[in-house]
Write a structure and sequence with these properties.
Spore Coat Polysaccharide Biosynthesis Protein SpsA, Chain A, 4-stranded mixed sheet, alpha/beta, globular
């Protein structure tokens, strides 16, 4: 999932710390590096873009990748829509603001969907950087509704929308939301 990297429209919490232009610059370069690391012939890679018109027509994103609009709503509504709209089969959605994601992480998530209904890649702040569904049955009613996004409850709230599902977790990674996250990233 990517946003068109325009100042004031992407990474606004980070932008309050380092300036909106710097935050947009960071996101643009982070997203490009992420795509170089995770595109792999073992899976199809789609870019879920927002805003719709700018994202679908952007020259920033690689032209060889499929693009699909995220559509309206909060993060949960947008992700739930992607799980319904992308062609059948296991699907993992990742955020673009996690510098540590590698092909191995994505492969591990798809592997865990072999014997689980869902998989999450937790973030150290209580959110998550990856959500995947096996998609052998429709997602439960209420899937990703009522989640307190951008809080330390996002993962727990999302797990609660998958009652009765076999859920796996993979590696915990760090996302970048504030200047302190960039400082921690440099020290790592």
């Amino acid at each position: 999932m990517v946003k068109e990297p325009r100042p004031g429209r992407v990474k606004t919490r980070l932008g309050r710390d380092i300036g909106m232009t710097n935050a947009a610059w960071w996101f643009r370069h982070q997203s490009a590096a992420l795509l170089r690391r995770v595109v792999d012939p073992r899976w199809d890679c789609w870019l879920a873009v927002t805003p719709e018109t700018e994202g679908l027509n952007s020259r920033i994103w690689p032209s060889h990748l499929n693009k699909i609009p995220q559509g309206p709503g909060d993060l949960g509504a947008r992700m739930a829509r992607l799980f319904r709209r992308v062609p059948p089969g296991p699907l993992c959605i990742i955020g673009a603001d996690i510098p540590g994601i590698t092909r191995q992480h994505v492969a591990r998530a798809f592997n865990r969907l072999g014997d689980h209904d869902a998989v999450f890649g937790p973030a150290s702040d209580g959110g998550y950087w990856l959500i995947g569904l096996k998609r052998t049955a429709p997602a439960p009613a209420g899937f990703l509704q009522g989640v307190r996004w951008s809080s330390d409850r996002a993962l727990a709230d999302s797990l609660a929308t998958l009652p009765g599902c076999r859920i796996a977790r993979i590696d915990t990674l760090n996302d970048v939301d504030h200047a302190a996250d960039l400082i921690r990233l440099r020290s790592e």
